[in-house]
User: Fold UDP-N-acetylglucosamine 2-epimerase domain-containing protein from Paramagnetospirillum marisnigri.
Amino acid sequence: MRTVCVATGSRAEYGQLADLMRVIGADAELDLQVLVTGSHLSERFGMTVDAILADGFAIDARVPMPLEGDDPTDIARSMAAGLIGMTEALERLRPDLLVVLGDRYEMLAAGQAALLTRTPMAHIHGGEASEGAMDESIRHALSKMSHLHFTAAEPYRRRVIQMGEPPHRVFTVGAMALDALEALPRLTRAEVTQRLGIPVTTPYFLVTYHPATLDQGDPAEAIAALAAALDRHPDHKVIITGVNADPGHDAVSSAIEAWRSRQPDRVRTFASLGQVLYFSAMRHCIAVVGNSSSGIVEAPAVGVPTVNLGIRQQGRIRSPSVIDCAETESAVGKALALALDVNFRSEASRAPYPFGRPGAARRIVEVLKATEVEGLLTKKFHDLPGMNS
Assistant:
């Protein structure tokens, strides 16, 4: 039996991995191990390890990555603790394969641990671009550390190959989020609004804003512009989900809390909504607003307009339902007006979706089962045509 260890370090990442974990766990040829780290183990970020346990998964390793602040030294200390802990965990668990997703610094520590312990690694959602965040560099670094690749779209597959990865090890499987959207229960509007604590008939915006780690701008000014633009719609509630554990977290969180404190009846904040409530809230919201990848990947899949602020998601493939804007009150205001336009909303509800179809988890599992692990650690650099001439 082949042992597959899945590492997860954040709520958003787990939301995309949960269905894959279920498929691996249900397969008679595979043995699932779960390694939990990062903000999952932090009270400050909602202790989302509880959601993993509630879903019925046994946890084989917990690797704390204490985060005392959000400046570069704090992040470096957290990564150092993660690297040591994950190296020890992989030495103990001895999986045949480690699976990581995306581009967060917690997974960079996991990738380094896999490299040191000679554990073959499969990377999901490589080849993507997010030019306004350090995630861009982490994602590509993880691709070079990995031995199997599962991309969300064909252009992303080509980009991984462009980095020298052997084409026969790179597979386009579609977006992982589609599996979650397909599999999770769908709450009614009444159930969603009751859990959010707002009247059932009240329209609302679903807002997620994370630090844009390569942006030199002041996040407090960006939040102020966002708040001012949303305040033009006083009959709409504002539901804000938690800020991730990136450099700049404290400044963004403080600005959001100041906004909430000024309008406690209208602006509601949640450290984590959980998968079921978050995706259900997305289905019933007026628009997804902010700079999270969920506005690029998940919102278009359910036909909801996205107002995407700033440069954090710059470079990603987009659906026509995504409205990009600068982080100024005027630009956000114009984008919100378009998102509320009846004709645009109709077009967004049937806009073409660029990230494939559901079933990514099963496609990944078939490759994991079919691939010979022996010899996987060594790979020949794939030169593009003409490079050797």
Remarks:
- The two ends are 45 Å apart (CA to CA).
- The mean pLDDT is 94.
- The chain is about 45% helix and 15% strand.
